[in-house]
Amino acid sequence: MGYYDETEITREHKKPRRSFKPVLSSIISGVVGGALVLGVTTFTNDQQPSVTETNQAVETAAQNESSTSTANTQALSTGSNSIADIVDSLSPAIVGITNLQTQKTGDIFQNSTGESVESGTGSGVIFKKEGDAGYIITNNHVIEGAQSIEVTLYSGDKVEAELVGTDALTDIAVLKINAEHVEVVAEMGDSSELRTGEDVIAIGNPLGEEFTRTVTQGIISGVDRTIDVTTSEGNWALDVLQTDAAINPGNSGGPLINMSGQVIGINSLKITESGVEGLGFAIPSNDVLPIAEELMNNGKIQRPFLGVGLVEMSEIPQYYLQEQMNLPDDVKEGVVVGTVSPNSPADEAGLQQQDVIVSMNDQAITNASDLRKFLYTETEIGDEVDVTLYRAGKKVTVKIKLTTSEATNA
Hints:
It is built from eight helices and 21 strands. By secondary structure, it is of the alpha+beta class. The protein folds into two domains: 24-48 and 302-409, PDZ domain (Pdz3 Domain), CATH 2.30.42; 58-300, Thrombin, subunit H (Beta Barrel). Strands 1, 16, 17, 18, 19, 20 and 21 form a seven-stranded mixed beta sheet that branches. The longest helix is centred in the last third of the chain and has 14 residues, at 285-298.
């Protein structure tokens, strides 16, 4: 899946796969840097964030947390009020987000100058006020690549925002503005209490500021959904809430709200395949808040680091797997090690190029997304994991102690 439309940062549709050449090393050199940053990097032919194999377009959004109120700040908790009451109370906490990037002007005969131009738009929600700062949750894809970020307030005023931190995998970003611009702080709800069929509303800026703070109504269509997305940091299985509330380009980063006026999700994805209607998705508030808090504390998300670049088995011709790598005929799933970062946990444990990882701690690994999900949700920095792999046709288990990328690069 991927982002779409001209008003937001977009993800490309999946491009046709190129054939995998027998010389494995020829496709490896381009991703060592990514492996150093993320810990695992999927080798694909798309360098930009792209859609998954369904060729469905997707739009993404984000949500927030319980907030601290000051004398001049209203902490929103409406109880069971009408939709109009909720909208009136919450709207001042919802903002527009504009991604500004520098565009050079001039030609080879003139001095080129940089001019900030709009590269994408989205929505956001103010979820905390602390000291002299107000904090906004939005989507990573809304602000990715921005040289500067502009926030449009409820009053229509535009102010510059500072990027506190961002996480491409979960598509969450936190921005900071001066607290004097904060009138209302949205209250975060408990997304684990949601039930299928529960009424919800979405507020955001579909198609940009022309339709600012558009309100749509729907229900929770499903509470346990997982959507495969391809991000700038690799493939990820994103846990989401499904809703039929209308979500359109520009809603990214805006809130999905329950009938108590609480933010229970960040509007994130919409399937726009021909013939499909009413399939929108939001990141649950209980997933958003821990990410937002860590971004506020550290500016980034620290995850266990393995230190490998990966090649999907599906990208490798069967004859090469069997004849050149001696992979047994009955091994149909796994992920191939393409690169090993120097001094990384994988390097220290002796992992090698063309090793085929099939399980970690006896949990089957069928592809790069499985490995990443296991690494980031089932382990912690400092853990030791048993990695089972095939090397030159032989089954081997090695123990690897996970660290951080900073420890490896120190």
